[in-house]
Every structure is written in structure tokens, then in C-alpha cells.
Write a structure and sequence with these properties.
- This protein is of the alpha+beta class.
- It has 19 helices and 59 strands.
- Strands 43-44-49-50-47-46-45-48-51 form a 9-stranded mixed β-sheet. The protein has a 6-stranded mixed β-sheet with strand order 20-19-14-13-23-24, with no helix packed on it.
- The radius of gyration is 38 Å and the shape is elongated.
- The chain starts with a strand and ends in a 20-residue tail after the last strand.
- The N terminus and C terminus are likely disordered.
């Protein structure tokens, strides 16, 4: 208690005013040293005293009174949001050791997917993260589906965080939940395929109820967006997860058990809230309805969709790879004999694994003599064994030749100038010579001549030449052995060529994939042959190595993809690995049993961001190996110029993945941009009526008028011309165009035609231009009138990218980011902190929070980055003498609506008008009649090193003694000039209250310059010293709040009191309370929560 020295009740200058001061109180940790590198953690609730009827009172009332489903869900959401403590991601480690503790071994945790018990100390933190057998923190609701940042509440919500094996966690990735095709190798009780993950049966209900919790807890009223469980498979980046029908099915099949109930109770003790679908599983039936799942759940490709073999099990377009160089699973001509007299023979070779009936399949040879185009046909009869030969000889050939022959015919009577074509039915599968050309006497020269010579096909040739009239040079594929040499007749062999890297995808987000092609005629077991891929990051010479597992078919492909890639990639992926996480500056090396067989990039070189330029750059592009490349690059540190061997396509081109062409040219699938006024996609079709474009990851052409060009030339906004707008208020007619490959800078009012990829950049729909735009004239455009507040979240989205005009005066509500990012928050009227008016956790707080979110917009300067050199707001630029204060107003606001960093923004196309109506007085205008001055002051991380002149740099404050001296002098001068009697301090170093503490240092400094009648003391809460450090710590943070007072005016009486109950139990530093007469003073930070009764204060001027 603080009283004045006359011992009488004092009249305050603000009789109705209460100043709030918070300070943390140290408590002994309930859990410490629970796992490797894990912080201590305290309980905040007692599960044994939990009262279900009280906790769910509003929900039970809603159900009993037949409220709508939406109202019931809101009631549940409010209940489970109240008292929810946001843990740090490090604290999650500690929490999971308690929530998922093995009931039969309290030193272990149970792994969700594998069901095994492993030591708590084997968590994958820090140096233990590289061991795939350690346990990790699995986000059951994948964090890439709505909350990629650890600052969002859902990221650390332990209701859906579970211990899992690191490798199993990687296999699950961010897939939806559904019935899946393939047993997971390391844990066959679970199943996985290209688009879904299926957990083991005994936890399916657990998974479902965790997903239902997330859908209900996060309704968009926190920093976390509205999470939705949907009855479909989703895409990475959506704040949604599927598949609802399957989750309902799993919930019903696997009811709540004792382990799940125990876990719910322990979460309640550490996080403060509960999973309502464990407490009341019957509520699932109230909130969630879906048609029964059709089929077995394999909707994404699976066995027949190209997932298992990179082209479908039948090989239709997949196993063959679209080879135009001959039938890749068929016979070809392997030897040619043109000897003396009638010593003529041809040998055929069957490279396949099956015998071929030549008669049944209508195989025949055609001989074209002396440049003719009319053939003499020889029908082939008999069969040719797998990996065997078939010899056709002239009936008058030598006995030695005929002894090796499988068939004799008088029509095999060639000279050196006759061509042959091998047919299967009407299909050409090989040729020898050039049809239509009379070479004179022969093709080739010397030992490669087709006259008086025996020619054997090189063992590296594994398929026929189907172009019968191309240039024929025997030296390219044949080796001569001289006249009448039959030593190799009937004995042909081939060397199966090695696989090589055939495609590289470096797309948006997790759209990363590597494709291999097998040019051979035999399937290859990649696992048994010890194939590995090594990724060399940022110029490193030490790779991240991982095994390639599975098999690659002859003339087929094998795709390894990041588990978070788009469905178009996952549908053809044969292996998922989060090691496929390259950027444009990472190299790859392909190994077979330790031997290099191909490479991509240049090992040991950091190219900056990429190798190559334009579409053949290794960053933000798809690269396809040219058809002329048939083997790998085994020199891993030579110059790497992608355009020499690769064809480039724009980002997120997935047209070629899963198949590869070994002959002919690959063509760009993107349509030409065309000419002005050609048909184009409307912008409202690109935007759609949802927050994610229905045309996501597709290439489209749009035409529109340029409404705004960003000052740094990264892109521009376009809007549909009025005559082409759809008149639907639910769809935006504007969109942002990222220049990307466009080099033409338009001007406002230009009509432009743009070809590009539709993408979502952290929630903003945009078009990434893949080539230069076309300019199609100029025109005017109209602004859409905007009035705050927005009617709904959907109304905000429906204006994304559009040019708007705000005619009303908006108030500057928040200028916190003005200096750092050049932006301020505007609103229509003053916004109240909900807990200033209503009880924390109440429905009124929830409703007002939602209303506030709709009644503000960020005024953006249109420049990316932080700490701009010139801060353009207010007019004339921000300076110490030209400031912008809360309460000032902004008028004449015209510009485009943008969405970035989770906020809707307006970027003005012309300078707005600032009205300075809340100028700061030199001194506060205080009501007369009081006799005590109370103030607060943020000392901005006042850290005094070790208190003895050393100990720098500090963890949060000054880097050296000189810097601290400057900070100290300024703060002492400022506080002294306030001449306040009681001062609440924020951001004081939490280093106790001893003679070398920061608080003692500040008080000593103030008293050294204090005038007569002023001498400061600080409130010492006398908390117990921390067992480890020996310091009187107020909570676990590095900073605290404190209270100082002029002991010549007031005296501290009694024992300092603390409040630690709701709503001050987390994210605050518990209140320290002093008393002056009957006025209570709480020193604090972050929240302005008033003690009951919660009567709103009269609205004062902005301060």
C-alpha cells in the first residue's frame, strides 16, 4: 500500500482513472529437464477440479434450446478459446513429454503413428534433429494449411501436436487424411499415397477429433485464420484440410478411450483449454455432416493414375515415355552381313524380357533396292526369345551362315546400296540405310561400309531407328568386322545405359521435384542397386545424401517430390522426400553404389540465386532435359550452363513430369499471348468468389487497364474494363501482376494483355507474367466506393486488387509500424480494446474483436522491406517535427486494395490528405486539484550488463557500455522531467533487486540528479530467489515491469500483492499492486484489463 506522508486519503487528479502495472512473479516449475534441450513448464490449471457443466455452460444452453448449428459451434469455440495459453514452440517439447507419456514407462513417450514407446530424451531438438529415429513434433493439422508461422496460435496448440518418428513425420508431410494405397515402409500399420495419409486404426478417431477441434477452435478471431475441415482433398497453402467424410467415419469407428481422455486432461493443465469432442463425442454429429465417402478414397491417381510407375501400370504413355526413336520394347536389327556371293544375312535382337511370336504379331522386313521407294517384303515366321537373336539368311548362303539361321529366304539378296525397314504390322520399328536414296554402291566408308562387310550394331544402341529417310552414316551406330566375318552372328548383347536426371522443378512454395529417366530396356531396382541422390546446398561440397527407393521401368521415369508439392506433382511421384527442398542455387549429384552417374548444377559453386538466365534459370522454373541428351554429366564441378542441355518453362509448369521424350523436341505447353482483343480470361474468373483462385497454378491470358504501378517496379495492378465486368459484388475485378519475366513497364491507364501463371502469394491472388506484356491502348477507369467497416471478411476479399475511393475521414488508429514499415492503421472512428469494455473470454469480447477487424485498413506506402530511408507519411515525410499521431485523420484516399502480411491494405495512387487534430502538448493538460502525479514509462530494454561496467553485449539491451550510457542518460532526463510521484516501468531487465540490478541502477541515477524533495525508491516484491541462478526472477521472461515512487511524497505500506488468475495467467507479467487511499494501482504491460466492475471509462482524447 502506498500512502502520502500526511496519512490522509488523497484526491487524485483523475478520480476515475486507474493505472495498470504488471509484473511477473517467479514460481517453481512443475516440469523441468523433461527432454533434451527443453525449457521448464508450469501448470496453469488443475484437471481434478474441472467442472464440465460450468466449462460448457453456454454450449449446453445452446443445445438444450435448439440453437442453430452455427450458434452452437460459436458457443463451443468461445468455451475452448477462453484461458487458452499460447505455448512457445520450445515449450511444446516439454508439454508433449507429459501429454503423451507412456502410462507403462514414465521415462518414455508414445509415438502417435508407430505406437511404440521411446525415451523422452530422444526428442529431435538441436543436435538430435538429424537422427530419423528420434521423435519430432508432428502437426496433425499440417502447418502449411493455414499457419506457417510460429507466431500464430495454432502452430503451438498441443491439442494437435503429437510425438512422431522423424521419418514417419516426413512421410506424412502435409497430406490430407483419407484411405491410402500403400503401406508405409517404416510403419506398415499406416498407409500413404500421393494425395493422402491413413494412420493406424487405433488412432484414427484420435486424429479425427483433433481435426474437429482445430476447425472449431480457430474461427478467424485470432491471428490464426479460419481453419476449415472440408470434404475434399486440399492444396498446400489452403487454410483447410480434408477429408471430412473419412474423418467422420474414423471418429465413429474408433471411439474415445482412456489414453485420449488422460491426454485431454493434461493438456488442460498446461494449455488451459480442452478438446470438446473428447469430452462430448456426441457433438461431432451436431456440427459435422457429410455424404458417405465414395470408393476407397484413392482419388488422386494411385495405382492407375501414374503414381506407382510414373505413367500408369499399363505403361500407356508412361513406361514408353513417348519414345519416337523406335518401339522401345521391341526388336531391332542387330547385325548385317554383305559377304561374297550369296553370303547375305540379317540378325534381329529382342531386348525385352518376353519371347515374341513374329508370325502372330505380323513382323516383316521390307527391302528397298537402289534408291527405290517400292519394297520387296519378307514375312517373318517363328519366334524370338527374350534377350535373344533371330537370324534371317539367304537360302544360298554358306553352310556356316545357314547353320546359325532361324529362317532362310531368297528375298534377302541385298547389295551395299539396298535399304531395309523392319515393320510390326504397319508400324516402323527399325531401319537400315536410307529409303529413297541411291548411295551409288554403299553407305559409309572403310570399315563402316555397307558393301563387302559385316556390321554389328553397337551394344549401346537399345532401340531401332524409325525415321527411314534420314541421313544414314553407319559409323554412328555400327562397327565393321570385314567381309564374310560371321563370328558374332547370333550372339548380340546390349549394355543397359544408366539412368539420368531428366526433369527439375523449382516452383512456388513446396513445388519441388526431380525426375529420372531410364533409357534402358530393362527395369532397374533402384533400392537393390544402391542409387542415391545428394543435394549440395549454397556452394557446399558436403552433400545431404538420401536413398532412392523403388524401381524404374525400362524407358520410364521415376519422380522424387517434396511431400508438400502440388497434387499435379504428387499424382506422379514415386517417392516423397522433404530432402527435395532445393532453391535455384543447390546442386544435385546422382550416385549408383557410390559412383557418380549424373549431376545438375556445379558442386562447390554458390551462384548467388541461380544458374542460367530467363526460362532456363534454375530458380522459379521447370527444366526438362533435351531429347538429344541420352546420358548423364559425371563431371560435377565443371561449368554449368543449363541452356546447353535443358529446355526451360515457366514456374509451376507440371505438364512433363512423369514422362520423358528421348527423341524429337519438347514444346512449351503455354499458349501464345496472341494479339490485343483476342479472347482472354476475365479477371473475375481468375479471382473467383473464394479466397483462393479457382484457376490456381494455371497459365492464363488476361486483359485489363493498369490502375497502379508499384514504385519499385516489381509489378502493377490491373482491373477489368467496365464492359467486361460481371456485376457480381462477390468477385473482384482487379488483380496484381508480378513482372517476373515481363520487362515492359506500363503506365496508369494503359490497357495491357498479360500471359502468366495464376498463383497465391501468402493469400494474395496474383498473375506471374511469363513473357513481355502487350500494350493495347489507353482508357479511363472508375473507382469503387469503399466505406468502413467492411460488411464481412468476404467483402474484403471481393475488393482485393481493385481501385477504390474512400470519401469519409478515417482516424489513425495505430502508428506502431510507421517508422519500421512506413504503414499505419486507419479506422472509421475509434477502436476500443475489447477487454477494456468486457470480461476476457466473453462472447462480447469475441464479437467486438471481429467488429474491429472489419473496421480497419492499413495505409501502405507501396514499398517492400523495412526501415525505409524516406518515410512518406505524413505529407512531407516523417520527422521529429512532422509526426503522425493516433487520432489524426486521413481524407482523400484513393488507391488499390492489396493483401500482404495477413492484412488488407490500401496503396494510394495519389498523396492522401492528413489532418493533424491531435497535436501533442508540450506538457500534459491535467485537471487541477490533485496532489499526486502518477505516470508510466517504457524504458525499452534497460539492461545494465553485470552492473559493474561489464557484461556487454546484453541479450536485449545495449551492445556496449557507451551505448548503455546514452540510453541511461536519456531515460533519467525524461523521467526526472515528468516529476511524477509514482511511476510504472516497462521492459526493465529481469535481474533481481540487488545492488547491481538494473532497477537499482536506474533509481541511483534518478536520485543523483533529483531536486530537493525528491528521492526515489522501488517496490521490492521479495520473491524467492531462483534455484538455479540465485536471482529474484519475476517469471521466466528476460524483462519485467516495476514500480518506483518518490518516498518524500508517499510511503510503501504492507505486503505487495499479486494477481495470477485469469486473465493474467499467461502472456503477461503478473500484477504488482499498491494502494493510495482507496485507489488501486496495477503496474503492467500488454493488456489494459480493468478490475470489476467493468464500467467503460469516459472517452478521453487520444494520448
Amino acid at each position: 500500500m502506498l500512502v502520502n506522508h500526511k496519512g490522509i486519503m488523497m484526491r487524485l487528479k483523475y478520480p476515475a482513472f486507474c493505472a495498470y502495472f504488471l509484473v511477473s512473479i517467479a514460481q517453481a516449475s512443475d516440469v523441468s529437464n523433461a527432454c533434451f534441450n527443453c525449457p521448464p513448464l508450469d501448470k496453469i490449471a488443475d484437471a481434478s477440479s474441472f467442472n464440465d457443466e460450468n466449462y460448457y455452460a453456454n454450449t449446453l444452453t445452446a443445445i438444450n434450446n435448439n440453437y442453430t448449428v452455427g450458434e452452437i459451434k460459436t458457443a463451443i469455440s468461445n468455451a475452448i478459446s477462453q484461458n487458452h495459453k499460447n505455448l512457445t514452440y520450445s515449450e511444446v517439447w516439454t508439454a508433449l513429454t507429459q501429454t503423451d507419456e507412456d502410462p507403462n514407462n514414465n521415462a518414455n513417450v508414445l509415438l502417435l503413428y508407430r505406437g511404440i514407446s521411446i525415451p523422452k530424451m530422444s526428442n529431435g531438438s538441436g543436435s538430435q534433429s538429424s537422427n530419423p529415429d528420434n521423435w519430432n513434433r508432428e502437426h496433425v493439422w499440417a502447418k502449411s494449411h493455414g499457419f506457417p508461422s510460429s507466431s500464430l496460435e495454432a502452430y503451438t496448440d498441443i491439442h494437435h501436436l503429437r510425438p512422431t518418428d522423424i521419418s514417419v513425420n516426413s512421410s506424412r508431410g502435409n497430406l490430407d487424411f483419407d484411405n491410402s494405397d500403400n503401406a508405409l515402409t517404416e510403419s506398415p500399420q499406416n498407409r500413404v499415397d500421393n494425395d493422402s495419409f491413413e494412420p493406424r486404426n487405433v488412432v484414427k478417431g484420435d486424429v479425427a477429433r483433433m481435426i474437429f477441434y482445430m476447425d472449431t477452435r480457430y474461427e478467424g478471431f485470432d491471428s490464426t485464420p479460419d481453419l476449415q475441415v472440408v470434404d475434399r482433398l486440399t492444396s498446400t497453402g489452403e487454410a483447410a484440410l480434408g477429408r471430412l467424410c473419412r474423418l467422420i467415419e474414423w471418429h465413429n469407428a474408433d471411439p474415445v478411450d482412456a489414453i485420449e481422455q488422460t491426454r485431454n486432461n493434461r493438456i488442460y493443465e498446461f494449455q488451459g483449454n480442452r478438446n470438446p469432442f473428447i469430452d462430448h463425442p456426441e457433438w461431432v454429429d451436431i456440427l459435422y455432416q457429410a455424404q458417405s465417402c465414395a470408393g476407397d478414397g484413392d482419388t488422386g491417381g494411385g495405382d492407375t493414375g501414374g503414381g506407382d510407375t510414373g505413367g500408369g501400370d499399363t505403361g500407356d504413355g508412361g513406361d514408353t515415355g513417348g519414345d519416337t526413336g523406335g518401339n522401345t520394347t521391341d526388336i531391332f536389327i542387330s547385325e548385317y552381313i554383305e559377304g561374297s556371293s550369296n553370303n547375305k544375312a540379317l540378325e534381329l535382337f529382342n531386348p525385352t524380357a518376353s519371347s515374341i511370336d513374329l508370325s502372330a504379331d505380323d513382323y516383316k522386313l521390307a527391302r528397298f533396292s537402289n534408291g527405290g521407294t517400292t519394297a520387296t517384303y519378307i514375312t517373318l515366321e517363328g519366334s524370338i526369345g527374350a534377350q535373344s537373336t533371330f537370324v534371317i539368311a539367304n537360302v544360298r548362303a554358306s553352310d556356316a551362315i545357314k547353320a546359325l539361321a532361324n529362317m532362310e529366304t531368297g528375298s534377302l539378296s541385298h547389295n551395299g546400296d539396298d535399304a531395309y525397314v523392319l515393320y510390326k504390322g504397319d508400324e516402323v520399328i527399325d531401319s537400315f540405310g536410307r529409303v529413297g536414296e541411291d548411295p551409288g554402291s554403299y553407305w559409309g566408308t572403310g570399315t563402316f561400309s555397307t558393301k563387302d562387310n559385316s556390321l554389328q550394331r553397337n551394344s549401346s544402341v537399345i532401340s531401332g531407328d524409325v525415321v527411314i529417310d534420314d541421313t544414314f552414316d553407319p559409323a554412328n551406330q555400327w562397327t565393321g568386322s570385314g567381309k564374310d566375318n560371321i563370328a558374332d552372328l547370333g550372339l548380340h548383347t546390349i549394355i543397359n545405359p544408366e539412368i539420368f536426371i531428366s526433369e527439375y522443378i523449382e516452383g512456388s512454395s513446396y513445388n519441388k521435384a526431380i525426375e529420372f529417366y531410364n533409357p534402358g530396356v530393362s527395369d532397374i531396382d533402384l533400392t537393390a542397386s544402391n542409387y542415391q541422390l545428394g543435394r549440395f546446398t549454397n556452394g557446399s561440397t558436403e552433400p545431404t545424401l538420401f536413398a532412392i527407393e523403388g524401381s524404374i521401368p525400362a524407358k520410364g521415369t521415376f519422380v522424387i517430390a517434396n511431400s508438400g508439392a502440388a497434387s499435379e506433382i504428387l499424382n506422379v511421384a514415386n517417392q516423397l522426400s522433404n530432402n527435395i527442398s532445393h532453391n535455384g542455387d543447390d546442386a544435385y549429384v546422382l550416385y549408383k553404389d557410390g559412383v557418380i552417374i549424373d549431376s545438375f548444377g556445379r558442386v562447390g559453386e554458390d551462384p548467388g540465386s541461380e544458374w542460367g538466365t530467363g526460362l532456363t534459370s534454375t530458380k522459379d522454373n521447370t527444366l526438362v532435359r533435351k531429347a538429344s541428351i541420352t546420358n548423364g554429366d559425371t563431371v560435377i564441378d565443371d561449368d554449368f550452363t543449363p541452356e546447353l542441355q535443358w529446355l526451360g518453362f515457366s514456374r509451376n509448369t507440371f505438364d512433363y513430369i512423369g514422362s520423358h521424350e528421348v527423341e524429337g523436341d519438347v514444346t512449351d505447353p503455354v499458349a501464345s499471348i496472341g494479339v490485343c482483343t483476342d479472347p482472354a480470361t476475365f479477371i473475375h474468373q481468375v479471382q473467383g468468389s473464394d479466397d483462393i483462385s479457382p484457376l490456381l497454378n494455371e497459365n492464363h491470358i488476361v486483359e485489363g487497364v493498369v490502375t497502379f504501378v508499384l514504385p519499385n517496379s516489381t509489378g502493377f495492378f490491373i482491373q477489368e474494363e467496365v464492359m467486361d465486368q460481371d456485376g457480381d459484388s462477390g468477385t473482384s475485378e482487379g488483380v496484381f501482376v508480378l513482372n517476373n519475366a515481363n520487362t515492359v513497364l506500363p503506365e496508369q491507364g494503359d490497357i495491357v494483355r498479360v500471359l502468366g501463371l495464376v498463383s497465391e502469394y501468402y493469400g494474395k491472388t496474383q498473375i506471374e507474367a511469363t513473357e513481355d506484356l502487350l500494350q493495347c491502348g489507353t482508357t479511363t477507369f472508375d473507382a469503387v466506393s469503399l466505406t468502413l467497416p467492411f460488411n464481412s471478411v468476404d467483402a474484403q476479399e471481393s475488393l482485393e486488387g481493385m481501385y477504390v475511393s474512400i470519401n469519409e475521414a478515417l482516424i489513425v488508429t495505430d502508428n506502431y509500424n510507421l517508422g519500421r514499415y512506413g504503414e499505419v492503421t486507419l479506422s472509421n472512428g475509434r477502436l476500443y480494446v475489447p477487454t477494456n469494455l468486457y470480461s476476457p473470454g466473453s462472447s462480447e469480447v469475441t464479437n467486438l474483436t471481429a467488429q474491429n477487424m472489419l473496421n480497419k485498413i492499413t495505409l501502405d506506402d507501396g514499398v517492400n522491406g523495412q526501415n525505409p530511408e524516406n518515410i512518406v507519411y505524413p505529407t512531407g515525410g516523417l520527422t521529429a517535427l512532422n509526426t503522425l499521431r493516433a487520432g489524426d485523420t486521413v481524407t482523400s484516399l484513393n488507391g488499390v486494395i492489396d493483401f500482404s502480411f495477413s492484412l488488407y491494405r490500401i496503396i494510394p495512387s495519389e498523396p492522401p490528405v492528413f489532418n493533424f487534430i491531435n497535436s501533442r502538448a508540450i506538457t500534459p493538460d491535467l485537471t487541477s486539484g490533485g496532489n499526486l502525479t502518477i505516470a508510466s514509462f517504457n524504458v525499452l530494454n534497460y539492461f545494465n550488463g553485470d552492473g559493474l561496467g561489464g557484461g556487454y553485449p546484453t541479450s536485449r539491451g545495449a551492445d556496449n557500455a557507451e551505448e548503455f550510457a546514452r540510453q541511461r542518460d536519456k531515460i533519467i532526463t525524461a523521467i526526472s522531467s515528468m516529476n511524477a510521484d509514482i511511476i510504472g516501468l516497462l521492459e526493465m531487465e529481469n535481474d533481481g533487486f540487488g545492488e547491481h540490478s538494473a532497477i537499482q541502477d536506474l533509481v541511483d541515477g534518478l536520485n543523483a540528479v533529483a531536486p530537493s524533495g525528491v528521492n526515489y525508491s522501488f517496490v521490492n516484491p521479495h520473491v524467492p530467489a531462483d534455484e538455479v541462478s540465485g536471482i529474484e526472477l519475476l517469471g521466466g521472461d528476460q524483462i519485467k515491469v516495476a514500480m518506483i515512487y518518490n518516498n518524500q511524497k508517499v510511503t510503501e505500506v504492507g505486503t505487495t500483492a499479486y494477481l495470477a488468475q485469469f486473465p493474467f495467467e499467461y502472456n503477461n507479467r503478473d500484477e504488482i499492486i499498491g494502494k493510495v487511499g482507496q485507489a488501486i494501482y496495477l503496474a503492467g504491460k500488454r493488456r489494459s484489463i480493468r478490475p470489476s466492475p467493468r464500467t467503460p471509462f469516459p472517452e478521453p482524447p487520444f494520448r
